[in-house]
Design brief:
Pathway: Amino-acid biosynthesis; L-serine biosynthesis; L-serine from 3-phospho-D-glycerate: step 1/3. The protein contains 20 helices and 24 strands. By secondary structure, the protein is an alpha/beta fold. It folds into 4 domains: 57-146 and 343-358, NAD(P)-binding Rossmann-like Domain (Rossmann fold), CATH 3.40.50.720; 151-330, Rossmann fold, CATH 3.40.50.720; 369-513, 60s Ribosomal Protein L30, Chain: A (2-Layer Sandwich), CATH 3.30.1330; 522-596, Alpha-Beta Plaits (2-Layer Sandwich), CATH 3.30.70. It has a 7-stranded parallel beta sheet with strand order 8-7-6-9-10-11-12, sandwiched between helices. A 6-stranded mixed beta sheet has the order 15-14-16-18-19-20, with helices on one face. A 5-stranded parallel beta sheet has the order 2-1-3-4-5.
Amino acid sequence: MAATTSTAASSLLATKKNLSSLSLTSANNLPAFSPLLTSSRRQRFIVLSASLNSKPTVLVAEKLGEAGINLLKDFANVDCSYNLSPDELCTKISLCDAIIVRSGTKVSREVFESSGGRLKVVGRAGVGIDNVDLAAATEHGCLVVNAPTANTVAAAEHGIALMAAMARNVAQADASVKAGKWERNKYVGVSLVGKTLAVMGFGKVGSEVARRAKGLGMHVIAHDPYAPADRARAIGVELVSFDEAIATADFISLHMPLTPATAKILNDETFAKMKKGVRIVNVARGGVIDEDALVRALDAGIVAQAALDVFTVEPPPQDSKLVQHERVTVTPHLGASTKEAQEGVAIEIAEAVVGALKGELASTSVNAPMVPAEVLTELKPYVELAEKLGRLAVQLVSGGSGVKDVKVTYASARAPDDLDTRVLRAMITKGLIEPISSVFVNLVNADFSAKQRGLRISEERILGDGSPESPLHFIQVQIANVESKFASAISENGEIKVEGRVKDGIPHLTKVGSFEVDVSLEGSIILCRQVDQPGMIGKVGSVLGVENVNVSFMSVGRIAPRKQAVMAIGVDEQPSKETLKKIGDIPAVEEFVFLKL
């Protein structure tokens, strides 16, 4: 038995050494996935580990509800040590198999390095994982899980509370009375009934806010590219475009995650499109609002009032103009702060951590252990291609109908049982979801994440050209029943279609709609539909050159000479809006779109 344990441990260490040099977790490389191991092999390793230490140790570094602590104690030794300094945490972590934190403790690369490989699970009691170094966790083979559902109702209730308090000037009137004043005329409010509320982000919290607002007699509209229209209709909510939502709303309630696509999504430009006198509530993430722009909008009278529970920097500076503004109501990130929510979060994260320590795959995991080196070596460029095709396809979608049906086609010369597409499907799902979501998608949670969003992904395998030595000839992604912001991406069957293949180890985009192109999927891409005529490449290239935008690839696909053509341009930098407008102003350019990879 001892010999078997030694062999298993040596094999695991060797695998980690081989994989560590691949830098799987950087933004431009691959995320890590669970090993495609049989359950018996995984179970054997867990049993052997357990035999070395009858109970694992869980460090609870921030206050957790009693129900969660009791659940942990049934399975593990629990060490509740709060307010640890970074040095103290690094010293203690080498004795722990798991750690549970909230938002106040940073689980940095130094923490993982100090654990000496013992730390197996990080549990985040809440949704956001900004305080956990995911790249370091993955490199050290440590699973990260969170608790995304338990505080949904609490956050929704707080959003409604802030909206009502803002509309009736409750905070300001309270401060006035306590200061010995009686200013009834000064604090005349507005009614909620009959007003239009735009819910920006129609996930768990957003939909609960919508239900409660309907009960208050409000007309509710929503924007969310993934929200199924039938689910919205079931509670009397109309899905609309982003611009329509902000232009028609009397109240705007934010429930979107903070991603590169949503950072400062409310800014000077978007405030200018809003109805004068709009009121804004934010219980999501502070970074989705440009706070300086909000102050300017308040001073200009575009925004009548704002109610904020979250800020770009928390706590915000004491002299913050936004916090001190007389028409702004603020609370110190209380969205999840109810007794019931805290107990629910404690139970949810405790169950996830215990399950992970038992070797179970949690649906709330945000990363996973690494894929075996031999599988990664073969699939690496195709995994990258799969994610980028997903990212391209979803960015081509417009309108408020939501993405529901996706078809993925794999062309391969291999037998069906000689190609495991789970990793590829997971990466396509990752590309479809992550650009507009805070969810980190991997092999463990890809199907769950898709199901939660009503996203149906079907797969088809066809016999492709080439040798079975190569895993795939091409990958094709189609999105049905949606409109496209680039009409040429619509294929003959009315679906958005993108297709790509790997050439010399580099992912390439080879088809958009019905147009054949050939552009390396590096940097970002501009797609232009144009009249096929001499000089077009030079005209577009000149615009980009004058603006100092470097072109990495350029390819033109056409239906027939002197008819329509699609130009695909790979660029290293993101062009300014002015640059893109100049491209659109070229007479022969009929439409264009910029796609960020």
